[in-house]
Design a protein that fits this description.
Chain lengths: ~400, ~400
């Protein structure tokens, strides 16, 4: 029931739209911006001047158009100067990156994360990485935000990690803990009072693939992220589906096998008990092995003709298609993306996944669906965390940089 | 990547916001509109004058405020004058209504629909109802649109009913067929070239309960509609989730029981095979009985102590909770509404539904969820169809009435 915006709101909206365009599409000529944003040349000129004065974009070096006359000026995001810190806590890894406006990873650090370690044992190393990265930042650069992706259920209001079943975390105030570990210099530099934003890894991977990966221009997307557990980042009608508290997308706990194996969540027969890392490794008769290496070992063995590995791939692929069919009936997506270890399972079992999808999903719901692997690969979580960190800047570019 | 709106777009947006407010909330004082829309008094005055001149609202008869001074003028939707035709094709019923702006049913007709009849056999009687209703319309009234709710999968682009499994329909061009049966006088009067809009019954019930029923002010809603089959109307982040082609929400074909009973869709173990009308009647040992009467007979028998009816209610209630738990994990809704025959099943089996929800859904996903019956009862489909028919008017009030 929102009424129309004021003149000032329109200007902010236009500044955001222009900055978002070059953030997502890179160098763009003024002529292209005029078309893309539906604004006249003088408005584009004025908006560009404002953004350039704030140090968010630069103009110049027009690309050759191949036609006579002056080449059109090109507007570029200041990717080297304007940046966010993006962090990721995965089951087996900790990652931190400095990501420039435009989604470019400028610098990064990675470390193994021993399973079973507490939240505090992730916070320390990540804060250390950010401090390292920060020492190498050129003078005059501007930090506009910071966010972390985590394999857990994140309360939207304050970033509390309510439950990370695969990591054994309960009610971890991850955002504040990271902000405290980073110290005032780094958090004040964020230019906002929210410290470090926190997002679910599947949600942020979906955001990244939607912004600049395998689901660009798709309005209805299901991104499946698998490791020990399975979650989904869902985009419907171009917008993220996160639910009332922010906990939506827990598709790994959709029960597909009543009376099936016990799940870490306390229920039985959840989808992740049939398609998670443990299910594949167990089905291949390889108890004891863990992690992505173990998943890849099963895939390799199946490739080489190992019959129990092949059976495991078929079985897990069938269950994968089973749950995908349910989600296709529910969401009627254009694109389903298989991320994390599900990428490897999908590539090995694509025919089984498709076959089960065809037998279980309604023809109208599945007729245009494309099954895809992530275009951004393992960087999706970091790129997605950076997208989250950039959101405030893109919503109101001048306020975010001068506040 | 939309840039900010023009002055004219803002005026249309404001006109739409004001009209939508009185459409949803009824008579509203200028003072309340000023607050609700965040616009100043003179803008509200000008917008009201424009809408009144177009015959969409009237002003006057200020309510007593209990304070000294002039009572504030009250703006009312012209519910008697501005109306839409709303139709509904349910498994066992055909319904048609004339619905005034503000969501008021002014007049209606109902007929039984024999099961197994073709689309054409619904179109004729419905068109007849509309013609009857139209003869009683007072002079000077304005028809602004028309829409039909149907138990089937509706292609968003053109309203084609791709599949109505419970009705045996395949690829029925319902919108054009209704427009043709209504004839040029009625369809030209709609003031638009889209003829009769078509929506899925669950989607439209969700829209209605969200607009003026059990889910007002809830941004995340799952509305379950059951008869022979089961569908959901889903609202996430305040917006309908309909998927790429418009077919989303087919939760009745979420497989919950692998290898279970064959479903009308060709798959096995779909949720609707465990919670649809046939499942309940069969579980109670009453094969042969059909329709809502049959469902109510089982509920009554259970109430009176019939042990096989009680067993059926427990069993179907458990499966109902089972699927609801899956949807709660996926959508983290504030409100789940049980409509159609699922209303009766839910009321009889609420404890079993809740118990299964508690054991299968993640605590964070279910902690704030409310399980509800429809506030609009059996009128939800008609009210929802009317909401669909009013959408164009509310998006651009003056264009829709003068076009």
């Amino acid at each position: 029931m929102r009424a129309g915006p004021s003149q000032d709101e329109i200007r902010r909206q236009n500044l955001g739209a222009l900055l978002r365009h070059v953030h997502l599409h890179g160098a763009t000529s003024r002529a292209e911006l005029t078309t893309a944003l539906g604004l006249n040349r003088s408005t584009i000129g004025a908006l560009t001047a404002d953004l350039a004065a704030a140090g968010l974009v630069s103009e110049g070096g027009g690309r050759e158009t191949g036609r006579a006359g002056r080449p059109s000026l090109v507007v570029r995001p200041e990717s080297q100067r304007v940046y966010a810190y993006a962090l990721s806590i995965e089951v087996d890894q900790l990652r931190a990156a400095r990501v420039g406006l435009g989604g470019r990873i400028l610098d990064q650090r990675t470390a193994d994360r021993p399973r079973g370690t507490l939240a505090a044992e992730s916070v320390g190393p990540l804060a250390g990485f950010v401090k390292e990265l920060h020492q190498a930042v050129p003078a005059g650069s501007v930090l506009v935000g910071s966010a972390v992706a985590v394999c857990g259920m994140v309360r939207r209001d304050d970033g509390m990690v309510r439950l990370g079943p695969t990591m054994g975390w309960v009610d971890e105030p991850l955002g504040p803990a990271l902000a405290e570990a980073l110290g005032p210099t780094l958090t004040e530099a964020f230019g906002n009072d929210r410290g470090v934003l926190v997002g679910n890894v599947s949600d942020l991977c979906a955001l990244a693939e939607h912004a600049r990966g395998a689901a660009v221009a798709c309005d209805n997307v299901v991104y499946l992220y698998g490791d020990v557990g399975v979650g989904a980042g869902i985009i419907a009608g171009g917008r993220r589906v996160t639910g009332h508290g922010g906990y939506g997308g827990e598709v790994g706990h959709m029960v597909v096998h009543p009376g099936g194996r016990p799940c870490l969540c306390g229920s039985r027969g959840c989808w992740e008990t049939e398609i998670g890392e443990h299910a594949l490794v167990r089905a291949a008769g390889r108890t004891g092995a863990v992690g992505r290496e173990a998943v890849l070992a099963v895939v390799d063995a199946a490739d080489r003709g190992d019959s129990s590995a092949q059976l495991a791939i078929r079985q897990v692929g069938d269950w994968l298609g089973f749950g995908v069919a349910n989600l296709v009936n529910i969401f009627n997506p254009e694109t389903v993306i298989f991320g994390g270890t599900l990428r490897d399972v999908y590539l090995a079992a694509a025919a089984h996944v498709r076959s089960r999808l065809n037998s279980n999903a309604l023809p109208a719901c599945r007729e245009h669906v494309r099954l895809r692997t992530p275009k951004l690969g393992d960087d999706a979580a970091l790129i997605g965390a950076a997208e989250l960190a950039f959101e405030r800047l893109l919503a109101d570019p001048l306020d975010a940089t001068t506040g």
